[in-house]
Fold this protein.
Amino acid sequence: MNTDNHTTDEAEAAATNQINLALDRTVLANERTYAAWIRTGLAALATGLATVKFMADMLPVWSIRIMATLLIGFSAASFLLGAWRYRHLHLKVSRLEVDFIPLVLVRGLSILLACCSIIALVYAWYAMA
């Protein structure tokens, strides 16, 4: 009888461990996805600024402004969408005992980066004036 309880306890512990590992994988996947959104936004921001800097002598100003506006606007959207997607899953599993990057930190970083994109866009427009 004692061995049955011991076996049941081991089975419950193993099931709990599997659930915790699955939750950890979900959290890590969410964080990787957020990081991918940020990388995409940074790449678009850098490409937009590089377009302004290095293509000024090769293309008309209006076409450079359009390209820079699209790329830098896309970067701001990527930063904000990344935070939105992170929040989406965060709210679904926040009631569980899982360690997340704090939502306030994710939102703050994304808003800061989006503001940097807006500043870069203003620079891009006035650098070509």
